[in-house]
Amino acid sequence: MPVKIVDNLPAISILEHENIFVMTASRASQQDIRPLHVAVLNLMPTKEVTETQLLRVIGNTPLQVEVTFLHTATHESKHVSSEHLDTFYKTFEEIKDDNFDGLIITGAPIEQIDFEEVHYWEELKTIMDWAQEHVFSTLYICWAAQAGLFYRYGIEKHPLPQKMHGVFHHKVLMKHEPLVRGFDDWFWAPHSRHTEVREADIAACPDLDILASSPEAGVYLIASKDGKHIFVTGHGEYEHDTLQKEYERDRNKGMDIPVPKHYFPNDDPTQRPIVTWRAHANLLYANWLNYYVYQETPYDLSQVAHKKKN
Predict the structure, then answer these.
(1) CATH number of the domain that 7 lies in?
(2) Which of 37, 48, 142, 191 is labelled catalytic?
(3) Which one of 37, 134, 170, 235 is the catalytic residue?
């Protein structure tokens, strides 16, 4: 089934070229189906790239998903045109009275800034509070995972001695959980961050479960026991060359950045990276949408807040 997106979004042509089924809003209106309504709060500066990455994994499921892109009103994006935001995005004020089956909050390249110093921190807290009553399940990616763990559970982030970036081997720790259903015992996933949350801090929180972890990169998948909050500390949605572009960008800035681990053949950055994580990424998003959203959300979205209380 397709992912439903607004007409003329630039990502459409890219996804169609990859044989990923997308459906414009005008075509979807002709179908008598109640799609899943998923909001994506896109905090990344390169918004169009992130749109394509997320639509690629969301669109590879048997469910029809209608996506609403959100941007923060308290921070001016410098890497995307105002025309793009005006055409394809909404602000929180425009959707605050609506209900959604799911919410995705993306990462942002601001891990080294204290949460309280982030320009849109107060707005983000308002959105996370709003989601408690208006969203059935929220998926937090990378920095957003750290922000969500801090705001909801008081779990601190910690600086790393050097950037954690590369593709790392992870072990499934709770095989019975629907989020990791169908995963191999060990799987690969990308990370790209300067800070971490520590396994001991999460394990000490009775409301959270660690579902997968890496001996090198640390915890990867964390879920609240009620399944309403899913935290992903890495980037399963990354394209084959995303880490490569980040590495080259940092090197061009004069930063002393090591080669991403387990990414280039023979750790040679002149060679094309080999993708080892795509199957896991598709399954991760399919499981979240199916087991934590589709199977649980009431057909009438106005009942989302009622069901979450029960």
Answers:
(1) 3.40.50.880
(2) 142
(3) 235
